[in-house]
Amino acid sequence: MAFIIIFYLIAQQGHFLKTVDFTVFDRQSKYLASQLTVDEDIVVIAIDDYSLKHMNKIAGRWVWPRTVHGQVIDALQPMSLTAIVFDILFAEQDIYRPDADSYFNEVIARTSNVYFSTLEQRLVAGGGVLLKQLPEELGLIKTPLASDNAKGNFILPRAINRKHWQLGSINFSAEFDGVGRYYDVYRDISGWQLLSLPVKLVSSLSLPIPKKRQILLQWRGAAEQPYLTLSYADVYQAIINNDIDSLQALSGKIVLIGATASGLFDERTTPLNDNLPGVYMLATAIDNLKNERYLIEVSLYSQILIAITLIILTCACFLLVNSFVKQVVYALLFMVASSLALIGISTLLLMQQQVLFIGGILFVILVTFLTFSFFYGYLEYRHRQQALAMFGRFLDPKVVYKLLENNALLPEKMNKKQIITVLFSDIRNFTQLAEQSEAEAVVKLLNQYFNQQVAIIFKNNGTLDKFIGDCVMAFWGAPMESEPRQDTVAAINTALAMEQQLLLFRQGLPESLQDFDIGIGIHTGECIVGMIGADLRVDYTVIGDAVNLASRIEGLTKHQARILVSEQTKNIAGDAFDFSYQGEYQVKGRQGKVKLFQPTRRENNV
After folding, report:
1. Measured in whole angstroms, how far is the alpha carbon of residue 363 from the centre of its chain?
2. Is the separation of the CB atoms in 511 and 402 below 8 Å?
3. What pLDDT is stored for residue 606 in this prediction?
4. Are 43 and 253 in contact (CB under 8 A)?
5. Distance, C-alpha 418 to centroid of its chain
6. Highest mean pLDDT among 282-286, 426-430, 528-532
7. 466 close to 594: Cβ distance less than 8 angstroms
8. At residue 19, what are phi and psi to the nearest 5 degrees?
9. Dist CA 445 CA 456 (whole Å)
10. Which helix (H) or strand (E) holds 35?
11. Could you tell me whether strands 182-184 and 154-155 are parallel, antiparallel, or unpaired per DSSP bridges?
12. 38-63, pLDDT tens digit by residue?
């Protein structure tokens, strides 16, 4: 757990978790944008592909004479526009059409609501000019931290008379993944500040400006064309046709003029669109600032606190539960529930202009779940393999797995006193048989016999205790717990099946081995059962008087029957079998005599 928390804290400093944060944020932003309305006071006049084609007959190929823009500004003035904002860089004077520039400047001189763009360029070593030497009209603000030797490089609107400059930067501030999510409030160049174009406009409207370097944009409207958009060619055609009434939709609006044509390469990668024209990003920034709709980020400390809390709770699902299956199920349910809750909460916050970045938190919860699942899965695998290696000698592997699932093989559950039914099965006259046969043949014969008998024990859910020479010891009642009657019935069924299997087995033996026979003794009583042995060797076994009596009963079968059970076993089994009384006998280690019975199947149980 500590390792995962440290990993998360370190990863917070890198790009990976931020990439995950931004991925989730972008999808949420795009989903919500279509549900959020845009400011209807913002209108875009788009220099689109249609305009480039239709204006070609009037103004020629792009770049058009600035007379065209002058005519548009002049014609729109009676509409009391709040502002005209050019998302175009008028960087050079038109040396071939100086009259066009002159007319453009004359029109601008008669207005006070036209705003222009500037662009800070990357400073190349040895290049740039001293910021203090740049024109005052650029609007650079010198802060107490400003350096007099600071240099910068700007694309300035030199086609416009400085007296009419109302400038702001339009730099695209992309994150490390190339996506633009933030917009500048101001550019900071060695302590000198230059307001962005949206801030320049909004401040002139006497609206509050955020006191930070950037704002996180809240995207609104459709992904392709968020704001009301008119084609530049249509607007110009209406002007030259003196059809101004058709442009009443622009009355009192903030009009942005910018390129959307694919050939002008003014596209931005944003959460809304991979190829959003820059003028719509400018419009979004103006909308956010004008209406205070920009997003406020939840503090990083709060995100870290949420993540660490969820890591701890996910770990608790594993640490506080014993069963591996339950650990995974509880942790998975918690992970799904907490993830859905985070998505829901963050979406609601986003609608309230609050941003909780949850991508990294969701990722670290998943990492925690997978890490602990693999770790505890490995421990479970090892535990199962160890249990199978140990108990696979005593029990059917399927039974071992079932016991593991029920946590029945825990030490505190295995060592106990329990009513146990014990079965001893011994081969009669084995010593004589071994002396008359080759060692290899004897071993092969025993292995074949024991394989068949052990299979019967396992089939009846018995526990194989041990082989004692030619003797097999098994018991019922542990580690699988059941009613004593069920155990005695299973033990007797095992004995009867062993007898039947013996007869089949003997048919395949040579004539010299037709005397191969067994005796089986069964008794039920209280025993101590558990892991018993030395440090180097431990076995799961039973000890007690009931074990000794079962062994003694097996010894009495030589002169009576193949299968004998004690009176206690008979009484517990009840009417599950028919029993024939075989007399009572004195056995070593007991004062009273023991009554013995031979079980047989009832006809309806065959």
Report:
1. 6
2. no
3. 46
4. yes
5. 47
6. 282-286
7. no
8. -60, -45
9. 17
10. none
11. unpaired
12. 999 999 999 999 999 999 989 999 99
